Amino acid sequence: MKRVKLCMNCHKYNDKKLDRCSDCGFILDPTIIEVEDHLTHQIEELITESINQKQFVNCPRCGNPVDLDIGVCDVCNKPISRHTIDHQETQHQNEQMKPTFLILSAPLNLKLSLEPYFQKVGRYYQNLEQFPTISRDHFSYRLQEDQVFIQDHSTHGTKINGSKLIQGTLYQIRDKDILTLANIDCLVSIHAD
């Protein structure tokens, strides 16, 4: 048996004579515990693995690390949830992101540059002859104040996330929307260089 002190910060076993952790310098609890010699390394690994699986985020109010399983900042008592963090990350990315191109996924596989003027998409413009339901001039798109807008011109219709567009009307399209051209669904990706 080995007599040790457990660091409550990094969970390392320390010699019973130490007042501070030899790894992180944290003040050790004076309680001495007995552990079998051959188990100390295995127990340290299990504790470390358990801690590494936890998700910590910085509190948006005070910056303190918060365990998402607990969900409340222990410094300022602000409730924190995965939704709060996702919203903040998305907001931060959107503030920094200046869109430069639009990607329409398979089967079309189109990468379209974003400009502040209308550009057209259709069989005539992108050589999409293998898709007869897509009109020659299906829709136009443009970048306006860092947002992407499209306008339907098609014979067989265009939908965003299942909602049919009215021809000639501008609609905002967002990252991860499903754009349906006639009967062809594409995932929308908006990217910055």
Describe the protein in words.
- There is one protein chain.
- By secondary structure, the protein is an alpha+beta fold.
- The chain has three domains: 1-53, no CATH class; 55-96, no CATH class; 101-191, Tumour Suppressor Smad4 (Sandwich).
- Helix content is 17%, strand content 32%.
- It contains three helices and 15 strands.
- It has a six-stranded antiparallel sheet with strand order 7-6-15-14-11-12, with no helix packed on it. The protein has a four-stranded antiparallel sheet with strand order 8-9-10-13.
- A hairpin with a 2-residue loop joins strand 14 (178-181) and strand 15.
- The mean pLDDT is 80.
CATH class of the largest domain: Mainly Beta
What percent strand?
A: 25-35%
Helix content: 10-25%
What count of structural domains? Answer: 3
Give the terminus-to-terminus CA distance. 60 Å
- Helix and strand sequence: EEEHEEHEEEHEEEEEEE
- Which structural category fits the helices and strands? alpha+beta
Which strand order does the major sheet show?
Answer: 7-6-15-14-11-12
Overall mean confidence score, pLDDT: 80
Most strands sheet:
6 strands, antiparallel
Supply the number of helical segments.
Answer: 3
Q: What is the CATH fold-level name of the largest domain?
A: Tumour Suppressor Smad4
Low-pLDDT ranges? none
Q: How many β-strand stretches?
A: 15
The CATH architecture of the largest domain can be given as Sandwich
Estimated radius of gyration: 28 Å
Outline, from the CA principal axes? Answer: elongated
